[in-house]
Specification:
By secondary structure, the chain is α/β, with parallel strands linked by helices. The protein folds into three domains: 6-301, Thiamin diphosphate (ThDP)-binding fold, Pyr/PP domains (Rossmann fold, 3-Layer(aba) Sandwich); 338-529, Thiamin diphosphate (ThDP)-binding fold, Pyr/PP domains (Rossmann fold), CATH 3.40.50; 540-670, Rossmann fold (3-Layer(aba) Sandwich). The chain has 26 helices and 20 strands. Strands 10-9-11-12-14-13 form a six-stranded parallel sheet, sandwiched between helices. Helix 22 links the parallel strand 17 (561-565) and strand 18 (587-591). The protein is elongated and about 90 Å long.
Length: 672
């Protein structure tokens, strides 16, 4: 084994970062160049990973929260031996490369989460560390520590300026996540220049106040000093922030320490001068074999994984059922009995035909599913009694004085909607749990970017959004969701459900749990909703189905129009159908609990539900824009904000009555 030269190893990172950014003429060389020694200390001396097995269950998780510095992680992955050849570094930020502008999970081997929106990487890391801690408590047994890894996260000033960092730090401290280590690149520079005029926080005191251990500040360009700080962090009984003072763009004679190094290529002349200053005489994208050998972590990683495999084999020998369950959970497979559990729950809901709020129907579904699925990990942003995300199988999660969890599976996130959403993303990314969390639909605005990130990353995360319309009444327009359903439906790869009754709610939950590559948003009512009688249940899962033909109200004639409704407005459509039948006007009623799922169905099925030639009238207590794509002749909706009044008064005020819906149908038919 070659004698390691930490300075040369760090310079390899600097060279690759400035070369790739220069070739792309786009990117952020400053952070990789400034954090090079920090990366050497962590990746060469502390990080437990195997480049040949990026998904090994007990690997350490590494998150680059300051994702604009993506060439740092790409250089590290290449140098340590992941399947990321030099050609991919040459193609930095180019179409279909494995080195996109910001790290993307599922694109680059070894990248654990998609980062770039600042602060979310740190928050994802909190979720990962939480998952590790809970899995360890659930599966480890005396003499068998099969879950025993750490979560490391690099972050910068921008991450700490973002408000979500406060939410993440507070929860990590409350949960005593002692295997979480955040390394703060304290370089004092952002895109606009030195941060002192607008960022004067004492980060160390802030994190200490949140229950963290703080180490430093240390010189971030001294590998041994960073190494010692990381060793101190490993011994802590609480999460640790390691503060490293660095110079952004370290090594660049004219741009080091300035905003110019942050977000643009150094330029050919400055790169020449930087090479001279570093003593790096090698051509672009060339790392000498002796330096590459210093970085190569494949043999060490293979040994670490092999040792874990031996420990897991011994664990399996003593605890075969636990071992099988752990493997199932980490692979994201549902238990064999889940399908029958789901069928039984849907049939039970249909048979009982209860009149309850869909938020209550959600809780009834969760009672069955949380009992059958120990991986369901719930929570709420300080609204448990309103969101109804708790069940008899999910007691509140609490941590003892020693940091040990009590076995609870319901998380009180506090008033931290954004933090909750991003932590759930981290939990899902880690594996072993299916996270769900609740708040009011109107507060989805707070968590929207984390919802978007879950959709982008194709993670199974379930958002329970209650109080879905003006139906919440007296709280007024600040809390009444108007544009939120339409807005969430615009997010690619997010399934949005607004169920009308208990059966539709159970189906929505079933599909949300069963879909391993999409997050789901469940939009649920505060007010009670009557059960909508239906001939069958099979087509609910297609997102829309024919709920009632004219014959259901005594008319033996073909439909003249189609009423399409969601959620609480389905009952209005059914009542309007009955009113119209008195005048011999035949109407089909379609319940469309999920436009996003319906849009993926075959053309033939969509035509069977919404036949060509029949005028369509949509009914939903929200903005109308999203409904015109279905060729609607009219939409009964609300394109203003709500008012403060009892729910019944508001529905009448805004025209959500069976009489008005019927009147709109008559008007449409008379204009043909």
């Amino acid at each position: 084994m070659s004698i390691k030269d930490p300075a040369a190893m760090a310079h390899a990172i600097r060279a690759l970062a400035m070369d790739a950014v220069q070739q792309a003429n786009s990117g952020h060389p400053g952070a990789p160049m400034g954090m090079a020694e920090i990366a050497v200390a962590l990746w060469d001396r502390h990080l437990k990973h195997h480049p040949g097995s990026p998904h090994w269950a007990d690997r350490d998780r590494f998150v680059l929260s300051n994702g604009h510095g993506s060439m740092l992680i790409y250089a590290l992955l290449h140098l340590t031996g992941y399947d990321l050849p030099m050609d991919e570094l040459r193609r930095f930020r180019q179409l279909h490369s494995k080195t996109p502008g910001h790290p993307e999970v599922g694109v680059t081997p070894g990248v654990e989460t998609t980062t770039g929106p600042l602060g979310q990487g740190l928050t994802n890391a909190v979720g990962m560390a939480l998952a590790e801690k809970l899995l360890a408590a659930e599966f480890n047994r005396p003499g068998h520590a099969i879950v025993d890894h750490r979560t490391w996260v690099f972050l910068g000033d921008g991450c700490l300026m973002e408000g979500i960092s406060h939410e993440a730090a507070s929860l990590a401290g409350a949960w005593k996540l002692n295997k979480l280590v955040a390394v703060y690149d304290d370089n004092g520079i952002s895109i606009d220049g030195p941060v002192k005029p607008w960022y004067v926080d004492d980060a160390a005191k802030r994190f200490e106040a949140c229950g963290w251990n703080v180490v430093g500040p240390v010189d971030g360009h001294e590998v041994d000093a960073v190494d010692a700080a990381l060793a101190q962090a490993r011994a802590a009984d609480k999460p640790t922030l390691v503060v490293c003072r660095t110079t952004i763009g370290k090594g660049s004679p004219n741009r080091g320490g300035t905003a110019k190094a942050h977000g643009e290529a150094l330029g050919a002349e400055e790169i020449r001068l930087t090479r001279e200053a570093l003593g790096w005489s090698h051509a672009p994208f060339v790392v000498p074999a002796e330096i590459a050998a210093m970085w190569d972590a494949r043999e060490r990683g293979a040994q670490a994984e092999a040792a874990w495999n031996s420990r897991f084999a011994a664990y399996r020998g003593e605890h075969p059922e636990l071992a099988a369950e752990f493997e199932r959970r980490m692979q994201g497979r549902l238990p064999a009995n889940f399908a029958q559990t789901a069928v039984d729950a849907v049939v039970a809901a249909h048979t009982k035909a209860e009149t309850v709020a869909s938020r209550k129907a959600s809780q009834l579904a969760l009672e069955a599913f949380t009992k059958a699925l120990p991986e369901l990990l719930g929570g709420s942003a300080d609204l448990t009694g309103s969101n109804l995300t708790n069940t008899s199988s999910t007691p509140a999660l609490r941590f003892g004085a020693d940091g040990a969890p009590n076995g609870g599976r319901h998380i009180n996130y506090g008033v931290r909607e954004f933090g909750m959403a991003a932590i759930m993303n981290g939990v899902a990314l880690h594996g072993g749990y299916i996270p769900y969390g609740g708040t009011f639909l109107t507060f989805s605005d707070y968590s929207r970017n984390a919802i978007r990130m879950a959709a982008l990353m194709k993670q199974r995360v379930i958002h329970v959004f209650t109080h879905d319309s003006i139906g919440l009444g007296e709280d007024g327009p600040t809390h009444q969701s108007v544009e939120h359903a339409a807005s969430l439906r615009l997010i690619p790869n997010l399934d949005v459900w607004r169920p009308a009754d208990t059966a539709e709610t159970v189906v929505a939950w079933t599909l949300a749990i069963g879909n391993a590559t999409r997050p789901t948003a469940l939009l649920l009512s505060r007010q009670n909703l009557p059960y909508a009688p239906k001939a069958g249940l099979a087509e609910i899962g297609k997102g829309a189905y024919v709920l009632a033909e004219p014959g259901e109200v005594g008319l033996k004639k073909k439909a003249q129009a189609v009423l399409v409704a969601t959620g609480s407005e389905v009952q209005l459509a059914l009542h309007a159908q009955a009113l119209l039948a008195r005048d011999r006007i035949a109407v089909r009623v379609v319940s469309m609990p999920s436009t996003t799922v319906f849009d993926r169905q075959s053309v033939a099925y969509k035509k069977s539900v919404l036949p060509a030639g029949l005028p369509r009238i949509a009914v939903e207590a929200g903005v109308t824009d999203g409904w015109w794509k279905y060729g609607c002749a009219a939409v009964v909706g609300i394109d203003t904000y709500g008012e403060s009044a009892p729910a019944g008064v508001l529905f009448k005020h805004f025209g959500f009555t069976a009489e008005n819906v019927a009147a709109v149908v008559r008007k449409v038919l008379s204009s043909k």
